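can u pls check wat happens w/ 3,4-dihydroxyphenylalanine
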Amino acid sequence: MLERIEEIRAEAVAAIDAAGSSAELEGLRVRYLGRKAELTGVLRGIADLPPEERGEVGGVANKARKELEALLERATEAQDAAELDSQLLADRVDVTLPGAPPRPVGHQHLIARTTRQIEDIMIGLGYHVAEGPEVEHDYYNFTALNHPEGHPARMLQDTFYVQSHPDVLLRTHTSPMQIRAMETQPPPIFIVVPGKVYRRDSDATHSPMFHQMEGLAIAEGLTLADLKGTLLAMCQGIFGGERELRLRPHFFPFTEPSIEVDVSCFQCGGSGTLAGGERCNLCKGQGWIEILGAGMVDPNVLGFVEDYGYDAERVQGFAFGLGIERVAMLRHGVPDLRRFFDNDVRMLEQFS
Ligand code: DAH
């Protein structure tokens, strides 16, 4: 009898050791410790044994039962933990994955994209991007940019003034950042300034709010040739490597000399005529498209930032300003500037 108990015990221990799942362990529990198990029968039959055997057989059988119970409990716990681990691993969710179906995230507005593209070109030329306030002081928008008292651009039809603050206005151009930037850093300075500007104006090519990109370069020995080379690189980056520039004399209060810059038409290649012989509609047969205003920074402007290290006898430079909407309209054939701001998705989705 004792031998048999030891056999059962050894067999059960080996089976528990080898079990690979909690279901298997449950089967072993029933088989070795269940109501119909052999060991259970032995324990139940102790009373029927001769009295001299009862003590020893009972002790050994009970010990075996306890050992198997403890073993099973430990093995079941370990198995449950392992099964939980592997299930957690299998069910692992990567919360960084997009939902299903992935949500459309949209895209940049054509104005933002055009702005970034020009910024990238200018960063490639060594410029920094600076931004400034849209609510501006008359001093920065006009006075320090060499607008004499009574200049027409100061008059109400062009400028939005902040009520009850005759000196506070919505900037009419990005040029005020020329002064602000020079006040915060000594020369040399090479910056572009993208941003919103405001004018009392509204038709197919004018909006009360629109975007400009200002450029300012001040260093020793800069000339009009540097301005032309810079603008050529910029325009070729925007409109293609074949483009050429034409400079025409013009007037801006803050540059001397001032120029307007035309780029050769990217639709007809500058000939004014399309392949079929008809007149190019983009440049109206001119071969040139007016694209921006520029010039050599007027020494008077530098006079306003003399205290910040800008000595007009030592440094000079150039500035330019271009309209982002105009560039985007030309590049993408948008006929009406107001379409940029209607926020009609059918229009916006075309430029993804
Ligand atoms: N600020 C001018 C405008 O809004 C554009 C401009 C012209 C900017 C010449 C410049 C410049 O920096 O040199 O009409």
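Residues 173, 175, 214, 252, 255, 293-295, 319-321 surround 3,4-dihydroxyphenylalanine (CB under 6 Å).
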